[in-house]
Design goal:
The protein is an all-alpha fold and 155 residues long. The protein has one domain. It has helices spanning 2-9, 20-37, 43-65, 70-95, 99-108, 110-136. The longest helix is centred in the last third of the chain and has 27 residues, at 110-136.
């Protein structure tokens, strides 16, 4: 509960570091919240964007703690953002028949749109696997002048 509390208090903070426990417990809490949202019409369609917004800062802080290359977090969150946006558009247009999104998908060509979603999915596999590597690594015990001391090794 402490890790979830810390992560929820630091929603807008992308500076500093986050320990593995803080990130993964927050990830689990947001994931369970999105599963619950999926049972509510229209809100369930927005759950990919909601999870992106709630996990963005914790993801960047976790990558600072390892440390991962600075460009990696931007690429990872960029691909995740595009994937989330396409998923929301598809859900609202096809599943819920919202006129604007439905017209957008069928104007673009449904099979072309689904092909684009497939390409983004394949592109997201490589950074996703790399993030699993970085996300499960132990904290860097050294003081990082850019991100401060490790929360794990401070007294």
């Amino acid at each position: 509960m402490e890790a979830i509390s810390i992560a929820s208090q630091r929603l807008g903070d992308t500076e500093g570091r986050s320990r593995r426990s803080e990130f993964w417990w927050w990830f689990l809490a947001v994931g369970l919240g999105c599963v619950i949202l999926s049972f509510i019409p229209y809100l369930g369609a927005l759950s990919p964007l909601i999870s992106l917004v709630l996990l963005c800062s914790a993801t960047l802080r976790r990558l600072n703690d390892v440390p991962a290359p600075d460009w990696f977090g931007k690429v990872y969150l960029g691909i995740w953002g595009v994937s989330s946006l396409l998923s929301v558009i598809y859900s609202l247009g096809v599943v819920y028949d919202v006129g604007f999104f439905e017209g957008f998908i069928y104007g673009f060509g449904r099979s072309s749109f689904e092909g684009l979603m497939g390409i983004v999915l394949v592109l997201s596999l490589v950074p996703g696997i790399a993030f699993l590597y970085y996300g499960t690594r132990d904290s860097n015990p050294e003081i990082d002048p850019m991100h401060g001391p490790s929360p794990k090794y401070t007294l």
